[in-house]
Amino acid sequence: MFAFFVFFSTVYAADDWYRPPVGVTWQWQLDGVVNEDYDVDLYDIDLFDSSVELIQRLQASGKKVICYFSADSYEDWRPDAADFSAQDLGKTLKGWDDERWLDIRSSQVRDVMVRRLRLATEKGCDGVVPDNVDSYRTNTGFSFRANDQLDYNRFLATQAHQLGLGIGLKNNPDQARTLSSDFDFAVTEQCFEYSECRSYLGFIQAGKPVLNAEYRRIYVDDESERNSMCQQSQRLAFSTLVLPKMLDDQFRLSCVP
């Protein structure tokens, strides 16, 4: 017998959320006008910048929609930026001057993230990808540890599932195997470039896909290099794309047949 969770007058059956299969095809675009023309199974797009109409059009064409947001960093341009307390803002992210690390132990930070997850349900997203969920590995300005990160990531997964959302683990190779039972898929960047791909095999073994993006220019310019990398990707059963680092659809090459 199913348990039910009620949020914003919407009823969700327990275990009733999107779970993409291994080998799923996908497109990832976070910048610019989203190109809706790719014949893929799912799109990964920005939670805030994507309209309900865009999400509905993609779904009407048979695609699932995964909505991206940052869960461990404060972005000063987001519409809910004022909801964070100054005491929960840490150091600036390297290379991202308008982002600061968040104290993931904070109840206020967690409340903001629950509201973001609810926004994803209101917009009709099939799932979410919270970014920067490995901040324990860097100098954030806070003194939390790996267990704090595990607790926070599991909190996000639990809240997403209670709202009927699938959820992906993004860029956390050291905790990927431990969290593979909590998340429905993984999203990783440059796992071949940084020799991190095998960290995510727990997802594949659990029947959950790994969506990987590679950014090295040699994969664009040298077909033999790209084919070699794609052969490795296919052996691992990963869904790998070669994309521009800005994720603006300037080009797209897929390793998935």
Give a verbal description of the structure.
This is Endo alpha-1,4 polygalactosaminidase. InterPro entries: Aldolase_TIM (IPR013785), GH (IPR017853), GH114_TIM-barrel (IPR004352). This protein has 257 residues and is α/β, with parallel strands linked by helices. It has a single domain (4-214), classed as Aldolase class I (TIM Barrel), CATH 3.20.20.70. It has seven helices and 14 strands. The strands form three sheets. It has a nine-stranded mixed sheet with strand order 3-4-5-9-10-11-12-13-14. The chain has a three-stranded antiparallel sheet with strand order 6-8-7, with no helix packed on it. Helix 2 packs parallel to helix 3. The longest helix has 17 residues, at 107-123. The chain is globular and about 50 Å long. The termini are far apart.
Write the layout of secondary structure elements.
Elements lengths: L3 E4 L2 E4 L12 E3 L13 E5 L5 H9 L3 E7 L2 E3 L13 E5 L2 E7 L4 H17 L3 E5 L14 H17 L3 E5 L5 H4 L5 E5 L11 H5 L4 E5 L3 H4 L1 H14 L2 E4 L10 E2 L3
Parallel strand pairs: 3-4, 4-5, 5-9, 9-10, 10-11, 11-12, 12-13
Antiparallel strand pairs: 1-2, 6-8, 7-8, 13-14
Pfam family, one: Glyco_hydro_114
InterPro entries: Aldolase_TIM (IPR013785), GH (IPR017853), GH114_TIM-barrel (IPR004352)
Protein name: Endo alpha-1,4 polygalactosaminidase
